Amino acid sequence: MPIDPQACPGVCNRRARRAWEEYDQAVIAHAIAMDIYTGEYPKYRAALAAWHPPLAWPVEPREPAEPEQPTVQVLRANPVWCCRCPRAIRGALYQINETAAVLYADITGHRSAVITGPTGRRSLDPRELIELLDNVYGDLVEVAGQWAEVRGHPFRPPQSRGSHARNITISYLLGELDDILLHHASVEFGLKVLYWERRLLDTAKADPASRRSPIRCPRCRDRELYREDDGYFKCRSCECLLTQEEHDRRYADEVDEHDHEQQKAHAS
Fold first, then answer.
1. Of 17, 48, 106, 199, which has the maximum CB count within 10 A?
2. 44 near 60, Cβ under 8 Å?
3. Organism's domain of life (predicted)?
4. Average pLDDT over residues 35-55
């Protein structure tokens, strides 16, 4: 049975959905056990009536206990999502952009062989990574295009692939996200964003090159910044250190600079 028709469809209710799925399975198992019990009990009564020494005393079958309904709290939608999931979806969009940038940087000349990461899993080759990133972009650009058409916005998702097109599309979605998530059709979109975030992070963890940042070092200008185990980014050329906040600020500056250069190139 559904946990609640008004339940939030997001990850906040994952534990509740699992509990109710287990309850549904327990109800089915109980019904089967009751069928067996109702069939065995008349046999027990007959054996009891026919008992006489030296026969063994008949064992009474036990009636199966009914499963108890879950007591896990269910967070309700208001109107489509709970108060937590929109923040998770917004964070997932940011994470998709950041992780995709790192993976895309690996494709463009920084890795030429399929290698095995520290987890023992094989990293994707460039063609598989391109296909994965294209699928992510395709899903995002489809929603952005549909929403822009519904709202009458002049936004037209770029047809090209790559970081510039992805940044434009995700920036548009982030700007419209509050309104998008008020629409009941946003459930598929929100769950897909959370899925792609997990998929990209899983791919990045399997990839030894994924610790590499796509931005330039502010000191030597080389693209040799790598995330260390302590959370800092360290340049392997000049050993410059950046905090996560400094790194994210420079990443945003480089994106803006790239967009400006693209606009100048299109205008000329």
1. 106
2. yes
3. Bacteria
4. 92
